[in-house]
Structure formats: C-alpha cells, structure tokens
Amino acid sequence: MVVRMSPGTWITLGAFLAGCMSRSTDPPPPVVALITVDTWRADHFDAHHTPHLWSLASQGERWTDAWSPMGLTTPSHASMLTGLPPWEHGVRANNHHGYTLPPDVPTLPEHSAFADWASGAFVSAYPAGPEGGLARGWDVFDGPEESERSGKVAVDAALAWLPDDRAALLWVHLYEPHGPYEGRGATEGERYAEEVRRADALLEPLLDVLVDRQARIVVASDHGEVHAEEKCGWQHERSSHDVVLRVPLLRWTPERRGKVHTDRIGLTDVPALLRDELPAARPHWLAESGTCEPGCTGCSPQGLEGRDAVAISSAARLTRRPGKTVLKQGAPSAELEAALASIPALTVPTEEANEASLQALGYQEPSAP
User: Fold this and answer.
1) Domain 28-283 top-level CATH class
2) Helices (H) then strands (E): counts for the chain
3) What is the pLDDT of residue 239?
C-alpha cells in the first residue's frame, strides 16, 4: 500500500527532521574545569607517574617553569581562585591557623567571565575546604568538614553534579599525594610515587568526560614536597625549596595542541588560563615558606613568624630567613632585591593549632614503613 502525503505534510516533516539535525549538531554548553592535585611534585609529572595527565598535556599545553607562592594548601588554592599572592589576598597560612579570605577579595566563580554559570567545587581535604573562604561564590561546595577523603568521592560527586544543559565552572581537588602515604612500597619515596599514580588513575573518568565535552581544563599542584633534599624531609610546609615551590601545570583546550611553554608563570596565573588567556612571562617569582621549626631550615622563631620569603629569577635566588641575613645564590639584581623587600611582614591572627589538631587535619608525621 502506498501512502500519499500532501505538500503541507512534507513541509512539516522536513521542518521536524531539520530541527532534529540542528539539535544533534549544536555544541554542548561550555565547561571550564580546574583540577588540583595536592602535594604533587613537578618531577613526578611524566608518563610513568601520571600517564593520563601526561597524555592530556601532550595533546594540550604544558608549562615547565611554573611556581607556587607557598607550600601550604589553603594559601596556594586561594591564589588559584583569586589570581593574587597570599600577602595580597590575605590568606598567609592554612585555614586551621585562623586565616580566611577577606569578603572584598573576589573568587573565581564570582568573576564576570563566569556570571550565570553553574559552579561546583568538590574537594578532598579540610585545608581546601570551606573554612578559610574558598567556598565563597560556588553554587555547590562539597568537601569534608575535617581530615580528608578519597579522591574517588570527589570525582564521583563532580561527575554526578556536572550539568549538560548550562555552562559550568568546576573545581575538583585530590589529596592522595599528601602524607601519610598509603601507597605500596618499601620506602617513603616509593609510597609517595604510588599515591601520585593513584591520583592520576582516579582522574581518568573525569578527564574522559571533560574531553568529550570539549571543556577547557587546567590541572595544577598547589605545591610540591620535600623528599631527601632537606633535613626535615616530607614536610613541605616548612620549606621554600624548589621541590616545594615548583609545580606541574597544564591546560587542555580543543584549540591549542602540543605546546610546551618555557616562560615562567605561577599559580596566580590560573584564573587567566581558565579564561583562555596566555599569561605574560614573569621576570621573577616571589614566595614564602609556610612555617618554621628549628633544626629543619635553621630559621627562628618557631612557627609561622619564622617563615622564609624568597625571590627567584633565572640568574639568582634570594632568601630572607628570620634569624639570618638574606641568603644569596647567583648574581641577584637590584630589581630582585627590591622585589623581595616588597613581601610584607606576617601578622599572626591566632595561636597555631596544637599537634592533635594538625594530625586530625592530615599533617601527621611521615608514615611508618
């Protein structure tokens, strides 16, 4: 039997099919994602330790000279969310030390570039949590109220939340490489490396979804870790060493492929990277250590006020250490000396948390073999 349709019916059917084809080819709403891996050293960013992230960087952009402003979680994440160093955004130490982001400092989801976007943050440890002001501006902020949780919980929650019907800004934070280490191995170094590999594996399903969505993805560490480089190994918060301040940093977008940048930038440039900008190279980098313990770095007094301030250029490094004269390496210029002097002295708002509190928040001594 042959069914004959009137010209009007054909027109209606054609319009319906055209509409279906148009809807199927429309690009999905944009997604911009920040992924941070806590305590991840730059020398553990490679095909062996982080195969999924290395593959992503190989298809996108990677910076080989990227820096953190401090070896503490809350201040360095605040810099990624504000574009400011700690002495400008005001978070000069971790949230459990009593520091919090002032209300007049805007955060990433409050930026005009992401106005009316859905925004969700999914973090894995208290120092990256809501205490300290990092939760301000996010529609959804999901994190532990104390200690830490598996990165899988944060990744699963982020995937469950990610909307497909509106533009979305996403932050996911993993804590696996932070001590104490639960990875396999006979030494601290082996267990640390295993934790880095675990974080990379946990991110695989999230990366797959974000790439499929053609998202703009920025991945960074907040700071690195001391191994055997200093007397107080495995204690990043006490150090201004390069292994703490130098960090992995990559960006993936559908447009830029296979680029390795050697210009110096830092975590304060993360907001620009997320907005699809290319930051200008920095002639030097300024940073601080988090705290001080006598016998570890030779500083005094003990605690937050004994921290280092450092200025780093390609030719020199200056370290202002309480109780010592300024330590010089290389041939520092007058400009570098002036830059170091621009870091203001620290004001401590509260007494430091006691040892029991630090252990509860994940700042225990290195794990036993």
Assistant:
1) alpha beta
2) 10, 14
3) 94
